[in-house]
Amino acid sequence: QVDFWRHPASPSHPADVRVPFPSLQAVKTLLESNGISYSILIQDLQKLLDEEKKAMAKSRRTERSTSTFDFASYHTIDELYDWMDVLVADHPDLVSKLQIGQSYENRSLYVLKFSTGGSNRSAVWLDTGIHSREWITQATGAWTANKIAEEYGQDPSVTAVLDHMDIFLEIIANPDGFAYTHSSNRMWRKTRSINAGSHCVGVDPNRNWDAGFGGSGSSSNPCSETYRGPYAHSEREVKAIADFILGHGNVKLVISIHSYSQMLLYPYGYKTAPAPDHQELNEVAKKAVSALAAVHGTKYTYGSIVDTIYLADGTTIDWTYDHGVKYSFTLELRDTGCYGFILPSTQIIPTATETWAALLDIMVHVLEHPY
Amino acid sequence: VMELPPSHHSATRAAALAACYLSYRRGSPGRGLALRAVRSGRRQDIDGVGQKYYLELVLEDVLDKDSTVNCTAEVLHHLGNKKIAPDVQFTIEGELKNTDEADNVFYNRIKSLEKELVAENIPDNHGNISPEMEPIRLLAWVASGYVIWQNSTENTKFQFAQIKHVKQVKRSDEYLEFDYMILLHEMVSQEIIPWQMTVLWHPQHGVQVTQESRQPKHASE
User: Fold this and answer.
1) What gap in Å lies between CA B14 and CA B41, rounded to an integer?
2) Of B128, B174, B58, nearest in space to A336 by CA
3) Which of A196, A370, B37, B72 lies at a 20 to 30 A Cα distance from B130?
4) Catalytic site residue from A170, A235, A332, A354
């Protein structure tokens, strides 16, 4: 009773046969007495099978622990970067990872691209974590990336958006700052670039953009939390995004996500004059805030940056707006000050789910109002 | 008198200040009050005096977000002299929850400690607070209301951020005394400012800040 794995086909061509143990001696004798040379490919098949089974079980366990990412807790930069690769591996037809540059300390600046094809489709740009201490934002970014991947093909709105537009999501827009909040100072906001002639480190990446750069809505003091930097786009983290958006040329919506205060803001921050599109932006904001509140009752206020919080120049969305991205918004997530930057991880999922309602509402509006 | 949109920063800054003052006057280790929403705001420029704000606010209980209370407040920022704290007056509609029992439990617990209480980083960097430390945090929250009131202008919006360090100070009388090093977050400048404050408390005598001083940022940051 032998089991051919490769049947004899023609003379001078090998055949492979599996021999059960009791028949081993008899088969060997048969081959030798007939002058048929043979070699042993597998000494003990059962042993091989046992090892393979063990290896598969082990990799299933590891796969489960890396792809069963705990969105309800805060993670390190390495954990988030590792997970991004898992997300891409799990959804290879939808998600890819791009590198748009490097941080001051040479960390990779990664952007997840969600696309169902096409060529340079209209795009949505989302970023979280540009201010590193705003931990709820990176956590929300990760959850959101996963949500987009899960809902494509399931949720009609997500499917409609992705069938016509691409989504770019930079979860850790300030990796150096983020690493520093873990290693040294939980309240670090800025980049970690060295400032010539000063012992103070870092530039505020949300005052470094070339929009009203250098006004009274930012500081010229390197020790200040709102230090604008030596010149616009001096920060690699900022330049990378600006170059990407300019190079892409077809970005229609930008949402830069911060915390805290529970606000949905639109341009301008650098001047009090209303943005030309302020009426529509105000309507979009009003509707998005209402969609958000419907999830857990969380109340957001909305308005222009300059009216609602303060004069701020060199901000992300003022620059994107002035460069043709009509739908430019900043979100300030939970809370309103009870915990501030150190929001408990129990609030990650509720925050992410309500924020998602607003994000989707805005994306659908943009989809339905092409320009 | 000018009507202000409730979302406008001049209304929200005045409201935050009023809420902090109110929290200081009415708070305890069992009760922290926070600004939930601004319902309306008006501003009046009074020649030779300063800017006066008339506000309708909603406050919430830090420990129970579903528990809210309506208030009205008036905030007067004095012209020119930045050394004088703004005048704040308020009226609370209805009753605040009674916290006598929780306050007494905390008081007795601390009084019966063998060694003076010492703690750091409340909440911790992940936002966690152990139940035993919650009254310590609320006491700091309430006391910071005083500090914020004393140090606010129309161009600042302070928020309590974290206790870096707290040390109980032994006293021979019935008061509890704590020496706090806290972090305040100032929204307009985005600065995180270390602040020292010495806090006295007794269940019947409320919260007192006997000393407070702004500290320099650490050279390493």
Assistant:
1) 9
2) B58
3) B37
4) A332
Contacts of B57 in chain A (CB under 8 A): none
| Min Cα–Cα distance to chain A from B134, Å | 12
Q: Are residues A323 and A249 in the same domain?
A: yes
CATH of the domain at A252: 3.40.630.10
In a domain, A41, yes or no: no
A12: left (phi over 0), alpha (psi -120 to 50) or beta: left
The answer to whether A282 contacts chain B (CB < 8 Å) is no
| Chain A residues lying within 8 Å of B130, measured CB to CB | none
Q: Are B157 and B140 in contact (CB under 8 A)?
A: no
With respect to residue A20, please indicate whether it lies within any of the assigned structural domains: yes
Q: Which of B173, B63, B162 shows the shortest CA–CA distance to B119? A: B162
Per-residue buried b or exposed e for A253-282, using 16+ beta carbons within 10 Å of the residue's own CB: bbbbbbbbbbbbbbbbbbbeebbebbeebb
- Span A30-65, pLDDT tens digits: 998 998 888 888 888 887 777 777 766 665 555 444
Do A145 and A357 touch, CB atoms closer than 8 A?
A: no
Residues of chain A with Cβ-Cβ distance to B35 below 8 Å are: 336-337
- B219 pLDDT more than 70: no
A309: contact with B, CB 8 A cutoff = yes
Could you tell me which of B10, B36, B38 has the C-alpha nearest to residue B23? B36
Mapping DSSP to helix (H, G, I), strand (E, B) and coil, where does residue B213 land?
A: strand
- Measured at the CA of B13, the angle between CA A318 and CA A344, to 5 degrees, comes to 80
Mark whether A271 and A189 lie in a shared domain: yes
Contact B187 A309 (CB under 8 A): yes
Q: What are phi and psi of A181, to 5 degrees?
A: -65, -25
**A14, A149: one domain:** no
A103 and A9 together in one domain: no
Distant-in-sequence, close-in-space partners of A128: CB < 8 Å, separation ≥ 6: A137, A138, A140, A141, A169, A170, A171, A172, A173, A257
Three-class SS state of A30? helix
In a domain, A162, yes or no: yes
Q: Which amino acid is at A181?
A: T
Domain limits for position A208: 56-368
Domains by residue range for chain B, with CATH: 2-93 (3.10.450.10), 99-214 (3.10.450.10)
Query: Does A46 map to a domain?
Result: no
For residue B156, pLDDT over 70 is answered with yes
Closest CB to A340 among B5, B7, B161: B161
Give residue-wise pLDDT tens across range A105-116.
999 999 999 999
